[in-house]
Structures are given as structure tokens and as C-alpha cells.
Amino acid sequence: QATFGIAKGDRVCIAMRNFPEWCISFIAATAIGAVAVPINGWWGPHELEYGLQDSGSKVLICDQERYGRAAHCLQKLGIRALTVRAKIAGAANFDTLVGAALHDGKSMPSVTIGVDDAAAMMYTSGTTGHPKGVVLTHRGISTQMTIVSDKYF
Hints:
- This protein is an alpha/beta fold.
- The chain has helices at 20-31, 45-55, 64-77, 94-103, 138-152, and strands spanning 11-15, 35-38, 57-62, 80-83, 92-93, 118-123, 133-137.
- The strands form two sheets. It has a five-stranded parallel beta sheet, sandwiched between helices.
- Helix 3 links the parallel strand 3 and strand 4 (80-83).
- It starts with 10 loop residues before the first strand and ends with a helix.
């Protein structure tokens, strides 16, 4: 939050393979009041640029492959990158950032999050044009988890 200047309501884009860091990034973003924006890992450079710009993301948390696809537009869009499992010049590194926070004994910042605050922005498939960002609230995500839990567990 401090490193990237993320405030409540800011968009944090997540684009990577199914690494554990994906889940950690999603939970961390929503826990500080940011809006997690997971985007399709198969998107190419132009699609990634569209999603980053359309969502208004301030930071992109990504693996090396997605960084390579998005690097062309990050500076133009004013988006900083945080890379997982790769150290790339010009991008912050996930392990370094988390390691420093743990070493310094930092705890999660105190943020008041309401149930109707935005939690995530998911993109549609875009079958009739460009994909559209659909905003989900904390209440909506929690309700969905309750429905799934009641049905399957």
C-alpha cells in the first residue's frame, strides 16, 4: 500500500499464471480496500493495454510472461509493475517487497471497508465488443461464497 500509494478504491490489476501469489495478491488488495482486477492470463499486448486502461489500474501485479506483454504500455498509462517469480529492471519484486514488510514487522493497515464497497472488477468475455469491467462488492463476493458453501459443503 505504501510502496505504490494505493488508497481505498484504487484498482490493482493481477495478471499471472495460477501461482500462489495470485491468491495472496487478490486477498491483499481487497484487504486494504483496493479493487482487485484479475484479468485473463491469455490476453495479448493490446488486450492487456485495454484492460489496464479501462480499469484505471494503478499497479500491475504480474509474472514475467504477462510483464513482457504489458511492458509497452505501462509507462504511457502511468502504471507501476510488481513482478512475481522474476526480477525485472524497472519493476518492483514481490518477494523483496513482502520480505521487507515481514522483516520490518509491518502489519496490515487499518482501513474501514463497507460491505457495499467495490472489491473486484471482473471482465466479461467481450463477445459483442470489448470486454466490460463488472464491479463486485464485498457483500456480493461473501454472498456467493455462502451460497457455494451451503450447496457443496
